[in-house]
Amino acid sequence: MDLSAVERIESARVAHITSNAKPAKVLARDVNVHYGDKHALKDVNVEIPDRGVMAFIGPSGCGKSTFLRCINRMNDTISTCHVTGKITIDNQDIYDPSLDVVQLRARVGMVFQKPNPFPKSIYDNVAYGPSIHGLTANKAEMDEIVQTSLEKAALWNEVKDRLKDSGTSLSGGQQQRLCIARAIAVNPDIILMDEPCSALDPIATAKVETLIDELRTNYCIIIVTHSMQQAARVSQRTAFFHLGTLVEEDSTQTIFSNPKDQRTQDYITGRFG
Amino acid sequence: MTDTASSLQAPRALRRAIPPDEAAARVKRRYASERLFKRLGFGALAVTAVFLVTLLTAIIVKSLPAFTEHRAVLDVLVDASIVDPDGKRDPNVLRAADYGSLTRTAIAAAIPGIEGRTPRKALNGLISSGAGDDVRTQVLANPNIIGTTIKTPLLFSADVDLYLKDDAIRQTTLPGAFDLTPSGLNGEITLTAVQPDAFSQLIKDLEQAGVARDADAGAHVLTPRDASRMISLNGGMVKIEKVTPTTVTGPALLPLTSVDTAKANAWAQLIYEQPESRRRVTDQEAVFIDKLKSSGAIERGFNFRFFTSGDSREPELAGIKGALFGTALTLLVTLALCLPIGVLAAIYLEEFAPKNRLTDIIEVNINNLAAVPSIVFGLLGLAVFLNYFNLPRSAPLVGGLVLALLVLPTIIIAARAAIKAVPPSIREAAIGLGASQQQAVFHHVLPLAMPGIMTGTIIGMAHALGETAPLLMIGMVAFIVDVPSTVTDAATVLPVQIYLWSDLPEAAFQQRTAAAIVVLLGFLFAMNGAAIWLRNKFERRW
Prior knowledge:
The complex is a heterodimer.
Chain A: H1 3-19, E1 24-35, E2 38-49, E3 52-57, H2 64-71, E4 81-89, E5 92-93, H3 101-107, E6 108-111, H4 122-133, H5 139-152, H6 156-159, H7 172-185, E7 190-194, H8 202-215, E8 220-224, H9 228-234, E9 237-242, E10 245-251, H10 252-257, H11 262-268
Parallel strand pairs in A: 3-8, 3-9, 6-7, 7-8
Antiparallel strand pairs in A: 1-2, 1-4, 4-5, 9-10
Helix pairs in contact in A: 4-5, 4-7, 5-7, 7-8
Chain B: H1 2-14, H2 20-63, E1 68-77, H3 80-83, H4 91-96, H5 99-110, H6 117-126, H7 131-141, E2 149-155, H8 158-165, E3 171-175, E4 180-182, E5 188-193, H9 200-208, E6 213-214, E7 219-221, E8 228-233, E9 236-239, E10 242-243, E11 247-254, E12 268-272, H10 283-294, E13 298-302, H11 305-308, H12 321-352, H13 357-369, H14 374-388, H15 396-421, H16 424-432, H17 437-465, H18 469-473, H19 494-502, H20 507-538
Antiparallel strand pairs in B: 1-2, 1-13, 3-12, 4-5, 5-11, 6-7, 7-10, 8-9, 8-12, 9-11, 10-11
Helix pairs in contact in B: 2-20, 5-7, 6-10, 12-15, 12-17, 12-19, 14-15, 15-17, 16-17, 17-20, 19-20
């Protein structure tokens, strides 16, 4: 393939992106991830629009969580992990050596599979992010951030009388919403959620899903989920991963009603996975 | 799908029907084996418990006498001509005075009439040489008592103390059955009975005890290897040394008040079952002690001195304060070095160090260091700290440095384990919020690991507290009387003090050894208890 061919493909792709109604918030180009010798993610290309929910689905070990963790460079903490390719957020390369990873993670919040509040008070859990980033000048501002974050996470009414209680004393669903409030408190653009409901019961799951639906008007949310129903309920766009490749990415409706790829078809109809 | 189906069928083909009696036998065998295991486990526990209880009981029983002391409560004349000849109340003069002579005068006044050099020496030897120091302390605290007579307890010497504590000493008294006339008041005295063959019963007793008639002396002669016999009459005490059928001869251990004939029942024979040669106190001393005891001048009290004074050559004056302070200073140095270095090393290795061959080698070597015999660290300390850096010998500073080397691997391993036990989700949560690695560690991981680190540190310190061998190498085994006040003073530590005392021949030091062990064990238990308390109090479940 000569250089002009590459340029042609590139320009076609750019044309595709610009034709899209929403500009891409996150853009991944030829992302490959190796864990030591294991090739976990192969040539992933995807554009994730701002404001909305993007779901990553796929069987276990397909690389969807790995890709999610590339977006806020959580994979940096794994010494054997090696990422190549290019991921940009607002046209800024996040693997640029000059980029400060701390500032990146302040822009890209993350909610984990298992609720992991700090074993500190509810207030301190939410206040921790703003305090390390110096977002507030005084206690009153911090109180306000804590309150609005908890309100946005639909948790304020449940915990407003016991902000000094330990975050671990809450129920599982409340803990997960506390983790979401904690992520929101830093005022990120993007919130990554790695199977946020897999450790929760159906009622708590419904509450978290409602919350995700409310948050999508203000944030770019990327959610990894094992539950296709959940993907169908909360997301506007869905990407299907299989064996480390991104098989198909389209609007959620298209993926679930009229997938182009046979593997997607097999997965959503329950043939495997 | 076919794969699963075939793998399900395979064991079904192998399965055979087990007859009910065979099944019952299998169950029975399983129960029997479980019962056997339970019994073995219980047996092992019981053996351990028996050993532990025996050990502790032996040490505690042995140590108990050391926690009390006997004192003679006597009238002491604080003689101004001895204590303060110029009458200026100059503290330096008061401090330098000869208080021993005051106590000697006091004891001589308590048992009057003692003549001869040997009995006087025995009398003076009853009171500890430290008793004068107690009087000095009183005089310095209150100079107004100079010239007056004070009633004050005077510490007995260790042998007297042991004699008073020894319950095994048995005394029998036989009342006299005939009249007896002494030949004098003091010195060698012959007691003569008017009645012929008056002492035939005594001679019979002596022959039964194995004392034969000495043809040269024409009498039965008692030696220090025989049970001591004495006759108390006319306010004095005569030791029986030679016995003929009508006379008894021996030295007056207590002077008599008259040479009048003592009627039957007015005198008595005293028998000390334990021969003089098997006692630490002579007959002379025993008689003095009994005299003081009968006059009610002996008191028994808690041995505070054991905790408030340093080491001494005199067992009754020896205490563990010096060793305790030495231990405290040494452990302080150890802790000040170990805790920051150990925790920082653990954090670096666990959280920041790249995982490569070098860190692997370091890790293996830390684990190896934890298994190095402690004496090797002592030799290292001798070679490096004393010979190369010329640090002072016997100093808590050097002891602390050596023990720090010894304990460091333990603390690093414990701290790493504690850090590793903090769930990665906490770390991820912090990093996901944009905390730097350092912030994540110091804000979240370290506080959660701290109880584990503290537990490991306390156990490491307890290990250091009981360590003896490396300290011997750096000269902390010296006899040191002064209580150390800085880390460069010569000092010894509790376990080394125990080692030193256990080597001394005096019986009183053996009790003090046991008492010091009890104190050391007390500290160890307290430290381990603190570690357990910390662990339970701060234990978190995620």
